[in-house]
Amino acid sequence: MYKIVASDLDGTLLTPDHQIAPFTRDTLQRLHQQGEHFVFATGRHHVDVAGIREKVGIPAYMITSNGARVHDADDNLVFSRNVEPDLVAEIIKMVKDDETLACHMYRDEDWLLSKVDEELEKFHTESGFSFDYFDLNQPPVDNIAKLFFIRHDHEYLARYETMLNDTFGDRISVAFSTPFCLEVMGAGVSKGMALEAVAKMKGFALSDCIAFGDGMNDVEMLSAAAKGLVMATAQDRVKATLPNNEVIGSNAEEAVAHYLEKHML
């Protein structure tokens, strides 16, 4: 039996309106009472996730910013890896003249963005987490967990994905959390790497882990865990990358909670 359950949030554990549904909350509480360890594993900021964790009502580790930050159940920072300051400056320089992109950064306790992005605000109604603005001509470069760029044109963002990888190589990690959100973290950062670190902290191994996800930023975690479950609504690129992974239902059906109830409770 698996001892650690790790799950992505948006598109996976949360409903389509980005909420924790009652059945999912009750299932996670029962899982905790049974002695299993739950881990939130998301691209979101840790302040945001802490608010969601409080509503679920269980102690849980939080893998956030796609693995750039890990906090324990008491909110202690136990792992951190930033994007190098010079790379932050170079990446901002690469995109700052593109007025079609909204540029976001997570830094320490802050969510910073370059211009209004009303679409993203609805992701945070559960936690109440909000943002401040920064100047693209004078961007902060220290303690940046990740940068991300929003545009509702996947092919357009995919060109930036190629450009970033070609320019910076293995000095950064690049992944799509949704088809319309391209994310940039420090070298080697992924949810899979962070999950391995959490497992070791708890005295377990990746062979003790089961994981759920739907985005390209979940692929390393779904590959690293002993069992990685892919959501039915996952990006096609995820399913193509992980053709042998089991596919379950959708987040609208609370498929993660139903799977856990059937197989682990």
UniProtKB/TrEMBL annotation:
Q: Which UniProt keywords apply?
A: Hydrolase, Magnesium, Metal-binding
Pfam families of this UniProt entry?
Answer: Hydrolase_3
Organism classification: Bacteria, Pseudomonadati, Pseudomonadota, Gammaproteobacteria, Vibrionales
Top-level taxon in the UniProt lineage: Bacteria
Query: Which Gene3D superfamilies does the record associate with it?
Result: 3.30.1240.10, HAD superfamily/HAD-like (3.40.50.1000)
What organism is the protein native to?
A: Veronia pacifica
Q: Does the keyword Lipid biosynthesis apply?
A: no
Q: Which GO terms describe its molecular function?
A: magnesium ion binding; phosphatase activity
What cofactors does this protein use? Mg(2+)
Q: Does the keyword Glycosyltransferase apply?
A: no
The record's listing under CDD domains reads: HAD_Pase
Q: Give the similarity note.
A: Belongs to the HAD-like hydrolase superfamily. Cof family.
The coiled-coil regions, if any, are: none
Q: What is this protein identified as? A: Sugar/pyridoxal phosphate phosphatase YigL
Q: Which PANTHER family does the record cross-reference, listed alphabetically?
A: PTHR47267, PYRIDOXAL PHOSPHATE PHOSPHATASE YIGL
